[in-house]
Design brief:
With 227 residues, this protein is an alpha/beta fold. The protein contains eight helices and seven strands. The protein has a seven-stranded mixed β-sheet with strand order 1-3-2-4-5-6-7, sandwiched between helices. Helix 3 links the parallel strand 4 and strand 5. Helix 2 crosses helix 3.
Length: 227
């Protein structure tokens, strides 16, 4: 059982579509997806543990724990199976969850996900690592620095997924990234090629295409879900 009650926003009826945001964000990230997809789905946008309005709790602050939190949330809300759309760390949570509980995933959309930290372009990863080490230095003296170190630590130390593990995931998966994403395109292609039932779409924009280029993003996801 979970030690936290995850905050969530729900809209629409029908098949559950669970939205998982990225590092340091909240369910508000999906403002352009919630109403759009609620016409056909029961859209549930979650705040991950220690993000948005969800409490931090006592359990580890890891991608694996976030995946367990999702499992507990689905059990508590009677959701047997869902379509899962994850962005950035949310995509990493979705992949981690699907590897452990494949029977609970109808279809999956992973946007700007990575299997391991070196999947991020050095231009973006280095400042994250520097920020992490600075925050860690001050974390004994400052609660804010401690929280910051924990958040940045997710991107420095996680996730740990082998591409070979993905070969067992048979559900349909849509792999998305931006043309100017912070994830290396070769890494996005690695994820796509490792999944037996996947398609890939590179959308004009940076890492935050779902928010900044919502029309194109929603169209691509909608098309995938209708198949």
């Amino acid at each position: 059982m979970t030690d936290v009650q995850l905050h969530y926003f729900e809209q629409g009826q029908g098949q559950p579509l669970i939205l998982l945001h990225g590092n340091g964000e909240s369910c508000d990230y999906f403002e352009h997806q919630i109403t759009y997809f609620s016409k056909q789905y029961r859209v549930i946008a979650l705040d991950t543990r220690g993000h948005g309005q969800s409490p931090r709790g006592e359990k580890p602050f890891t991608i694996k724990q976030f995946a367990e939190d999702l499992h507990d949330f689905m059990d508590e809300n009677g959701i047997e199976k869902a379509v899962i759309l994850g962005f950035s760390d949310g995509g990493n949570i979705a992949l981690t969850f699907a590897l452990k509980y494949p029977e609970r995933v109808e279809k999956m959309i992973v946007d700007g996900a990575n299997l391991f930290p070196s999947g991020v372009k050095p231009l973006y990863q280095w400042p994250i690592e520097i920020g992490y080490h600075i925050a860690k230095m001050f974390s004994m003296k400052s609660e804010k620095a401690k929280q910051n170190a924990e958040m940045l630590g997710l991107m420095v130390n996680e996730p740990h997924i082998e591409s070979s593990e993905l070969t067992c995931l048979t559900m349909p998966v849509l792999v998305i990234a931006g043309t100017k994403d912070m994830i290396k395109e070769s890494h996005t292609r690695l994820i796509y090629k490792s999944l037996p039932n996947a398609q890939m779409n590179i959308i004009e924009g940076d890492h935050f295409v779902a928010n900044k280029n919502a029309d194109a993003f929603n169209m691509v996801v909608d098309e995938f879900l209708r198949k």
